[in-house]
Amino acid sequence: MGMNSETGTSNVIETARSAAAQAGLDPGKLAQEMGAKLKDVAETQKQAGAETVMGVARAIRSAAGDLERESPQVAQVVRSAATTIENLTRDINQHSVEDMSQALIDMARRSPAVFFAGSMLAGFALFRFLNAAQAVSHANPSESGSKATSGAQR
User: Is-contact 75 65, C-beta < 8 A?
Assistant: First the structure.
């Protein structure tokens, strides 16, 4: 009568293997190459993110210097936050993307509730960041347009 899903899946997999072999592609090698490229991209993004976060830490430390005259206690707390951010960034830089992903998987297995809460918090922070970035990108074209107009009137 009808074909069961297991047989259908096997046929699709066999057809894909056959097509790949006819095209001269080795699926295992292709997957390995793609994995290596993804790893390289992830490492590059990790480095770029770490540099950005270190810049934020330097800005926080600078703000602490400005606060020193008005409120030494607040300046100390801000400086401590900058140090914590710098240390965390250095720790991230010292580990590979593979190490960090494995640590994340291990943490999710050990305490799923903490992992879920952290994921929700990270998602919320990412949402806020993307909304702020979008608002800035929409604001910039009008500013540059008004500057160009004022420059042309001179």
Answer: yes
111: helix, coil or strand? Answer: coil
Q: Report d(CA 143, CA 53) in Å as an integer.
A: 27
Greatest extent of the chain over all pairs of C-alpha atoms, in Å: 85
pTM of this prediction exceeds 0.85: no
C-alpha span between 74 and 145 (Å, rounded): 40
Alpha-carbon 55 to chain mean position: 16
Q: How far, CA to CA in Å, does 56 sit from each of 9, 84, 122?
A: 50, 12, 18
d(C-alpha 108, C-alpha 101), whole Å: 11
Amino acid at residue number 47: Q
User: What's the per-residue H, E or C state across 43-71?
Assistant: HHHHHHHHHHHHHHHHHHHHHHHHHCCCC
* Exposed/middle/buried for residue 68 (C-beta within 10 Å: 0-12, 13-18, 19+): middle
Q: pLDDT digit of tens for each residue in the chain (154 aa)?
A: 445 556 667 777 778 777 777 776 676 777 788 888 888 888 888 888 888 889 888 998 898 888 888 899 999 999 999 999 899 888 888 888 888 888 888 888 999 898 888 888 888 888 887 888 787 777 765 544 444 444 444 4
